[in-house]
């Protein structure tokens, strides 16, 4: 099976995972939704590749889909390939850098593809990693529980803002609680954890020792099925990778993004337009990795992207040295 076919199947699966109760095609707003979605899709699809997509451009935009192993690429590859001054500051948080700044050569973020509207498109290469959607959703659930549970250790921290400030005071980096999608998922999970803890204290749940079913931990944490079926998960996690590549998350720069997501939830048949745009954008990317083929993907990344970054850096250093020499010559 070719890589392109596998990627297409992964994205297709995303539209089959955990569907909500949806309206039929005969609903009165279907025509209006179809008009909105198709208009956006037409304006978002690019049919020509003006130059080789395999050539690294001036700015590398790592579109980091959550829970795909992207941190490994960032720490083991990109942070070693680029010097600190090349990284766009606070990129995981929000767009806090000037895209016209020539020294900003690496942008790593959970922001979706709509961020390209703020970047010099003709000078930007995009890379990403995809993962089986069922595994990615389960991993998202586990991580949301893990981060939210830290609040139980610090009961005096009553809000995500306080926790964020505490973390920020100890580290110059961007807090997880400021990053999409965790800035939405963690406070939601934290509130649920505290409600369940309070219910245990009030005797509504049996104590942990009294529970006879080791697989029923609802006294402690939101069950996975409840998590999956909650409207919060439908808004952020279901079809999350596809909407992120399409640039339509609830963190999008596209004004009509909420309307388009609403239309697709009500009329799943319209999802094919979102899928087509996402596949078109994947086809134009410099590199796409697969979490399930981590070793193979990492090898391709090193050969395709890493080698070009090194060549690009050497060329920039030679240009910088030549410029310095010319300036020195002018002084004498």
UniProtKB/TrEMBL annotation:
The lineage of its organism: Eukaryota, Viridiplantae, Streptophyta, Embryophyta, Tracheophyta. This is Sulfotransferase. GO terms for molecular function: heparan sulfate 6-sulfotransferase activity. It comes from the Eukaryota. PANTHER family: HEPARAN SULFATE 6-O-SULFOTRANSFERASE 3, HEPARAN-SULFATE 6-O-SULFOTRANSFERASE. Belongs to the sulfotransferase 1 family. Its EC number is 2.8.2.-. It comes from Vanilla planifolia (Vanilla). InterPro entries: Heparan_SO4-6-sulfoTrfase, P-loop_NTPase, Sulfotransferase_dom. It is found in: Membrane. Residues 1-23 form the signal peptide. Residues 90-148 form the Sulfotransferase domain. GO terms for cellular component: membrane. Its main location: membrane. It is a single-pass membrane protein. Pfam families: Sulfotransfer_1. Keywords: Glycoprotein, Membrane, Signal, Transferase, Transmembrane, Transmembrane helix.
């Amino acid at each position: 099976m070719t890589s392109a076919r596998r990627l297409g199947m992964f994205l297709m699966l995303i539209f089959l995972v955990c569907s909500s109760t949806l309206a039929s095609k005969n609903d009165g707003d279907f025509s209006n939704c179809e008009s909105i979605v198709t208009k956006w899709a037409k304006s978002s699809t690019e049919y020509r590749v003006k130059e080789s997509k395999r050539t690294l451009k001036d700015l590398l935009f790592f579109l980091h889909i959550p829970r795909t192993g992207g941190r490994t690429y960032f720490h083991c590859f990109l942070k070693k390939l680029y010097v600190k001054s090349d990284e766009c500051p606070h990129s995981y948080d929000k767009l806090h850098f000037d895209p016209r700044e020539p020294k900003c050569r690496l942008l790593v973020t959970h922001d979706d593809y709509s961020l390209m509207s703020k970047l010099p498109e003709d000078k930007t290469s995009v890379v990403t990693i995809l993962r089986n959607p069922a595994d990615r959703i389960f991993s998202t659930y586990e991580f949301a529980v893990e981060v939210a549970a830290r609040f139980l250790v610090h009961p005096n921290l009553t809000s995500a803002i306080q926790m964020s400030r505490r973390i920020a005071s100890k580290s110059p980096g961007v807090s997880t609680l400021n990053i999409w999608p965790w800035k939405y998922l963690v406070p939601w999970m934290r509130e649920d954890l505290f409600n369940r803890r309070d219910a245990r204290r009030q005797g509504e749940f049996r104590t942990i020792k009294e529970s006879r079913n080791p697989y029923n931990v609802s006294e402690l944490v939101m069950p996975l099925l409840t998590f999956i079926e909650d409207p919060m998960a439908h808004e952020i996690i279901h079809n999350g990778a596809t909407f992120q590549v399409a640039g339509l998350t609830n963190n999008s720069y596209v004004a009509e993004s909420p309307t388009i997501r609403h239309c697709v939830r009500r009329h799943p048949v319209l999802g094919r337009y979102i899928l087509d745009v996402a596949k078109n954008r994947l086809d134009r990317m410099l590199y796409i990795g697969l979490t399930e083929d981590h070793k193979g993907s990492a090898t391709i990344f090193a050969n395709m992207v890493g080698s070009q970054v090194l060549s690009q850096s050497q060329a920039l250093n030679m240009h910088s040295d030549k410029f310095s020499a010319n300036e020195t010559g002018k002084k004498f």
